[in-house]
Protein: Ribbon-helix-helix protein CopG domain-containing protein
Amino acid sequence: MTQLDKIAKANDISRTAVIEEMLLHQLEQQDEELASTFLLPRVEKVLVDLFDRHLWSLRTVLIQGTVEASVAAHLGLVKFAADNGYTKGQLSELRNQAYRRATTRLKKKGVQDDEVSDLE
Structure:
């Protein structure tokens, strides 16, 4: 008597039913293996792609904001210099003083020194 026959007799089912159950069990395990082998990496790739797109969009917005702020600051300095008769050197020194004041305020609000030094 084979192992299959013993299992069939112990469970009061036919040998064919035992084989069918074993095959179904193996297929269920294989589905789980397929999911972890093929589906999870696909899901991970989709999530990574979405995150990359989000970061790219955020980067684009930050760059546009930086350019606009730079243009506005430059135009403001040019207008200020024209209205008050400042030279380029005086204007540069005024800008440096304003920068130092701004970074000092950031540090007082808890921004770390290395984060501020990254801006220089």
The radius of gyration is 35 Å.
